[in-house]
Amino acid sequence: MRLFGRKEKSEKSDPGSTVPVNHPAPKARGDAGLFKRLRQGLTKTRDSIAGRLDRLLLGRKEITGELLEELEEILFTSDIGVATTQELIDAVQDKVKRKELSDPAKIKASLKEQMQVFLEAPSPERRTPAPGQPLVAMVIGVNGVGKTTTIGKAAHRFRSEGKKVLLVAADTFRAAAVEQLCVWARRAEVDVVRQETGADPSAVVFDALSAAVSRGVDVVLVDTAGRLHTKQSLMDELRKIHRVTGKKLTGAPHEVWLVLDATTGQNAISQARMFHEALGVTDIILTKLDGTAKGGIVVGICHELGLPIRFIGIGEGIEDLRPFDPADFIEAIFD
Ligand SMILES: Nc1nc2c(ncn2[C@@H]2O[C@H](COP(=O)(O)OP(=O)(O)OP(=O)(O)O)[C@@H](O)[C@H]2O)c(=O)[nH]1
Ligand SMILES: [Mg+2]
Questions:
Q1: Mean pLDDT, range 120-147, rounded to an integer
Q2: Which of 246, 254, 315, 333 pairs with 75 at a CA distance of 20 to 30 A?
Q3: Residue 224 carries which DSSP code?
Q4: Would you say 263 and 288 are in contact if contact means Cβ atoms under 8 Å apart?
């Protein structure tokens, strides 16, 4: 089941429905240093997918049923997901039947092409802030996925694009959570609005939005809790923050970023469904791709959920958050 309808390609370039102020420009091609870092971060995934694929295809003369079964096994165990793996295998099989593909050595190129199609992110309608108001992004996800770290990295990124950023400590349930966000605010050299531990998160956000408007802030990033006593109470709390944000600033939050930990593999997809049903996610941030061989999850998430991947996390450093670029990603895991 798709959670989001896919948009036609032509809609992607509609300037009226996007928010250029908050979207990093596509990086220039030929940025060898950045690509090298991405490739390095994805080493485990590359070994899992491309390494095993190369070994499977080496010296093969024809595409047999047995070869396709082994191919399926490789894709499936790289966490691409059952449905997406099946579609990839079907596409290869169709090409073989139509005699467009007979040389096993060309399977890799065919897979890359098909995966790239799956990764072309759908472009959701973007809400734009009213003139003079900040863009508000609420950052959600289960505990430990990397919400606070991602906010710190994103703050640094926006700030280096010349934007004025404000962080909001709406995870008030643990003192350490507020402290951690303050550490990131210092690192990224941006302001943070906080209250005492145990304060009502919605009230913190409400006050922070007043401060954001009066200080002429461009981007507000709201850090939220990942765990409460029950899943239900977490969802209720997040919905309340969402509601209060909209009451304070019409149209806000303009973006809801769901942070998913790539190392959890298929679990990430069920988390996405749950949060999306409760809050309407606009962007996925996939973290910890550097520590896992499960990077294939990117393909499954994009294709099965129809939600765009906005950024990927490839390390714990402040520079380790990258805008997701399907072509670079495919190249980094295959070559
Ligand atoms: N290797 C790696 N580690 C990451 C990445 N992103 C986050 N982490 C680490 O993951 C751990 C948890 O990150 P947090 O940002 O505290 O996660 P959180 O979602 O805010 O957690 P809670 O506040 O407990 O819900 C930290 O040790 C981070 O350094 C990443 O892209 N790569
Ligand atoms: Mg946190």
A1: 90
A2: 315
A3: -
A4: yes
Nearest listed ligand to the Cα of residue 184:
1
The bridge status of strand 135-140 relative to strand 255-261 is: parallel
* Structure tokens that stand for 264 in this block: 């959890």
Reported pTM: 0.87
Give me the sheet containing 135-140, strands edge to edge. Answer: 191-193, 165-169, 219-223, 135-140, 255-261, 283-287, 309-313, 321-323
Across 1-10, 19-28, 239-248, 291-300, the highest mean pLDDT is recorded for 239-248
CB 181 within 8 A of CB 194: yes
Beta partners for residue 136, in sequence order: 220
| Distance of CA 138 from the midpoint of ligand 2 (Å) | 13
Residue with the smallest CA separation from ligand 1 atom 30 is: 288
Alpha carbons 107 and 323: distance in angstroms, whole number: 28
Encoded amino acid at 89, one letter = I
In the predicted structure, residue 4 carries a pLDDT above the cut 50: no
Q: Is the CB of 291 under 6 A from ligand 1?
A: yes
Is pLDDT above 70 for 135? yes
The finding on whether 190 has its CB within 6 A of some atom of ligand 1 is no
Model confidence at 175, pLDDT cuts 50, 70, 90, reads confident
105 token code pair: 């050595």
Give the residue, out of 40, 149, 157, 288, with the most ligand 1 atoms within 8 A of its beta carbon, to mutate for a pocket test.
Answer: 149
Name the nearest CA neighbour of 45 among 305, 303, 268, 263. 263
Q: How far is the CA of 112 from the centre of ligand 2 (A)?
A: 35
What number of H helices and E strands is found in the chain? 14, 8
How do residues 26-48 score in pLDDT, each as one tens digit? 444 446 788 888 899 899 999 98
Distance CA 185, CA 167 (A): 7
Share above pLDDT 90 across residues of the chain, in percent, rounded to a whole number: 75
Mean pLDDT, rounded, for 285-302: 91
- The rounded distance, in Å, linking the Cα atoms of 94 and 294 is 27
Angle (nearest 5°) at CA 190 between 187 and 192: 105
